[in-house]
Amino acid sequence: MLVVAKAPVAGRVKTRLTPPFSAEEAARLAEASLVDTLHAVLAAPVRRRVLVLDGVPGAWLPAGIEVVPQSAGGLDERLAAAFGLCDGPAVLVGMDTPQLTPELLAPALAPDAWDGCDAWFGPAVDGGFWALGLAVPDPALLRGVPMSVPATGAVQRGRLTGAGLAVRDLPPLRDVDTARDAALVAAEAPDSRFAAALAGLTVAGVR
């Protein structure tokens, strides 16, 4: 399992949450989201758990997670490089879906997950993707895909099928990009660290 993330430093993460949140509040939400994600990965049945990090690990990092630095370049290059770290089937997620659970990942991590399947794709509500699994981690499948645009998910999935891969889909999830996203995701995962962090912030129109 790969988790691609930025260290939750004020002013560097979740900038689309500001306003209505301050940079410090956005970083607090980012940290909670990242920690929720890492704990979901810790509970998943995988042999290796790697945080591909832009930044420096902090006290928020739980035990049992290997940390490697992100490569340089655009997001497509950084995701491609993350898959380049792997020598067998790998599933990659980001830090923007704190509602993630081992159950949501289960189809892509089951013993028969790769029987007749070359790739797993988790679409995001905003048109991107929250998960990507590859039986053979080929970085070329990601390089050149336009990131952070409404067509990102469609282009990435098309890249997979265009390469002749058999693709299976995971359920769609909502990324936390805006204050409205934060409220909706917290409602989906009321027992998460993310929901608790959001509840501790008083922002007009958010709660």
Could you characterize what this model shows?
By secondary structure, the protein is α/β, with parallel strands linked by helices. It has a single domain, classed as Spore Coat Polysaccharide Biosynthesis Protein SpsA, Chain A. 31% of the residues lie in helices and 15% in strands. The chain has helices at 23-42, 75-83, 102-109, 152-162, 179-188, 193-199, and strands spanning 2-6, 50-54, 66-69, 90-93, 119-123, 129-134, 167-169. It has a 7-stranded mixed sheet with strand order 3-2-1-4-6-5-7, sandwiched between helices. α1 (23-42) runs antiparallel to α6 (193-199) and α5 (179-188) packs across α6 (193-199). Residues 203-207 have low confidence and may be disordered.
List keywords for this structure.
207 residues, globular, Spore Coat Polysaccharide Biosynthesis Protein SpsA, Chain A, disordered C terminus
